[in-house]
Structure formats: C-alpha cells, structure tokens
Amino acid sequence: RERPWLRLDLPPASFFLLDTRSQRQEHDRSALPNRLTSAEQEQALRTWQKSLTGPGFLVLGQPPFLPDGDWRDYTLSNFRPEFDRLMEIIEDSLRGKNDEGRPHDLVLISGDIHTARHVRATISGLPGRRLHELVTSPASRVGPFLSGPSIE
Fold first, then answer.
1. For residue 40, what are the CA distances in angstroms to 33, 58, 80, 109?
2. Hey, how many other C-beta atoms are within 10 angstroms of the C-beta on 66?
3. pLDDT per position in the chain (152 positions), as tens?
4. Paired residues of 14 in beta bridges
5. Which helix (H) or strand (E) holds 108?
6. Which of 62, 80, 90, 148 has the fewest CB atoms below 10 angstroms from its CB?
7. Cβ atoms of residues 114 and 95 within 8 Å
8. CB under 8 Å to 89, separation ≥6 — which residues?
9. Smallest Cα–Cα separation from 63: which of 19, 18, 112?
C-alpha cells in the first residue's frame, strides 16, 4: 500500500482507519512539535470528516481518552499539537462543521490497552450529543476476570 490509512464508505456509514503508529517521529520534548501522522494523512482525515453524510467510525491504534504516556509507551495525547487537531476534527463532526452543515455522530474504535471498555463523552455546549469510544483489545478475553461488566 502506498498510504497507511484507509477510507471505506458503506452508506450511510463511513469508516476511516487512521494510522497513528507507522509515521510517528520519536518523541522528544526538545524537538516539538512531534509528528503523530503525516500532513497528507491528517488532510485525508479532515476531508473525510467534512464529507460525512451519515455516522462515522474512526478507527485508531490507541484510545484517545488516556493520560499522557511516558518513555515506555507514549499515548496519542503526547503528540501535541497534532493530538489537539485530531480532537478538533472529532468535535467539528459533532458540531456540524462539515459540507452538509449538520452534526454527524462518530464512534471511535481502538485497541492497544489490553482491556475492553466503552467510553461515552460529551462536548461542552452540546447537550445530548455523545461521542462513543469502543476499545476492543483481544487480550481483554484473557482471564482471570476479577470484575464483571457494569450495566447502566
């Protein structure tokens, strides 16, 4: 493949597989900004978000809702300001900043943390709009299971 990302449209839904690993620069606070993706991939993501006509599924290598990592394993939030631009693209979809001028739901799908979880987030000023994150790490099926799922 020439590019490390993929867009897949299955109307009314659309998927964007964002590669946040293979194009990273080595993290170095003295050499900010650090790169999470290429400028070309970031533009392709922005184009995808702007052209959504239905729900979007953004597939990421790591969950965005994690605290900063350290030298053992950096998380997406370590790569600022690029991480902030990623969050802005997500928020733009929920706010309807797109070609249609209307909000589109997004589901973030990721892995990497060796557990399964569902996060439901809100955006300030958008009551009733939700962003869902599903972490689907295969290691979440490895026991022993010390707790059960919580059901709301």
1. 16, 17, 17, 22
2. 16
3. 578 889 999 999 999 998 887 666 655 555 555 677 888 999 999 999 999 999 999 998 888 888 887 767 778 888 788 888 999 999 999 999 999 999 988 899 987 767 777 888 888 888 778 888 888 866 555 555 555 555 55
4. 9, 56
5. strand 106-110
6. 148
7. no
8. 45, 46, 49
9. 112
Q: Indicate the length of the chain as a whole number.
A: 152
In a 13 Å sphere around the CA of 40, the CA atoms on its Cβ side amount to 6
**Distance of alpha carbon 70 from alpha carbon 52, whole angstroms:** 35
- Torsion sign, CA atoms 84, 44, 66, 150: positive
What angle, rounded to 10 degrees, do the helices at 39-51 and 82-95 form? 10
Tokens describing residue 19: 């590669």
Mark 116-131 as b/e (b = at least 16 C-beta within 10 Å).
eeeeeeeeeeeeebeb
